[in-house]
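hey can u check if this looks right to u? its 136 residues, i copy pasted from the old doc so theres a chance i mangled smth
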Amino acid sequence: MPQDSLWPVQTAIYGVLTGASALTAQLADGADSVFDHVPQGSAFPYIVMGGCVAQPLETQSGGGCDTVIDIHAYSRALGMKEAKALMAAVSDALHSQHFAAAGQRLVFCRLISQELRQEGETRHGISRFRIITEPV
């Protein structure tokens, strides 16, 4: 069932992002600036694990899960350069990479879209990934 893979996939992505030195070097508090829930008063820039959509998937070896997850990058630097660099580092860490998710076999992880918005003083980048998994 899709919900069986959601937490292991999110946990695996969190581990990849917090272990990606090219990303964490750009964040206000390094790996401690990758959040599921952003504590009040957190310094910019930071990364947030966003929402996801999961659907059951029939694969050659049985059932699997097709998950789309958003990773958000937030910056208050002037211009878009910092937010774009964060988005590139997130993409480098996840796109076409292989990582372990508990109880799941990763078939693939692909970047499917990116969007950058200006929201007042904040630059908000959204990187959307498609992840296919199968239970082990």
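The beta strands are 34-35, 46-59, 62-75, 104-119, 122-135.
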